[in-house]
Design a protein that fits this description.
2 domains; BP-dependent_transpt_permease; ABC transporter permease; transmembrane helix; membrane; MetI-like_sf
Amino acid sequence: MGKTNNSLSQLALQKFKKNFWGVFSFCIIVFIGLISVFAYVLAPDNSQNANQMHLSIHSKKPGFKVKMLTLPLNIQSDESMIEKVFFGKRTQVSEIPISSYTIKDNHLVYTEYASDGLEGLIKEIPLDTFPNQDAESYIEERTFIFGTDKYGRDYLSRIIIGSRISFFIGFIAVFISLVIGVAMGSLSGYYGGKVDAAVMWLINVTWSIPTLLLVIAITLALGKGFWQVFIAVGLTMWVEVARVVRGQIISVKEMQYVTAARALGFNDFRIITRHILPNIMAPIIVISAANFAGAILIESGLSFLGIGAQPPMASWGAMIKDHYSYIILGKPYLAIIPGLCIMVLVMSFMLIGNALRDALDVKTA
């Protein structure tokens, strides 16, 4: 039996490898996953939530360059390296965009950056502010690859860090939906009768409520926040899993290997978990891939409505909400870039779901 399962798994893996779009989508998902895990290592602005604001350079086009003066704030940090890598650094410097500077009479004289052809304010600070009075080493030309948002934050950094919510909500929401859906579907399909009627009534009631409306209601009940959105999305996606599991168990619970397990005296929990569920994993895996895509879209919709991840936390949906009006103001890229990121991630999960469906279908050669 073990050799048969192993050979079937190898056959499915070989079929999956032959699917170009499935492998390509898998590579994209792994790539985005690595970016989301090491977001603060890769982001040019590695402050918490990439929230360094420079209002004088707001809404600049991709490739914008400006001289940036960094003023040390002499704030001691007790953050560990792990905290900096995975959660970002607390702001310990003050950054000022400047257009020009000179050193005169032991003072750094600089002109603040001003857009639209305006003249910026001229200010000066003593060289003693900088270690070893080396002011020039604290001035660098910075390039904003994706430009800046309406608050003057580095847009590339916000996109990179925003991938965390869109990516991890899929895992957490799908995990919650699998735990609830598999449990409810197993009880309903295996025992039938009144248990089946009760579970199906609950499924139908939940299914009849629009998903977005139900998520909004759960979110408002739990409160606005990062984890609340994850839980709310997961609690609305279990019905599809439960219906699939119920249908699969009904079709296999009278098969010979289940009857043999009952004859050997195994309890119902062992029969369901050790004998039935491993044999119906293929459709569960496929619907989980689809639920990944659905969870990402729901979270993006919630963030767009303002009840998802809250500022200053970066989220692709919230970035579209903040900048959708810029589409008619000649700067559509501020809304298009996060929209394309959502589209690529969702499409990757949908394509990998289709590839898994074909690979796990024993009827195909």
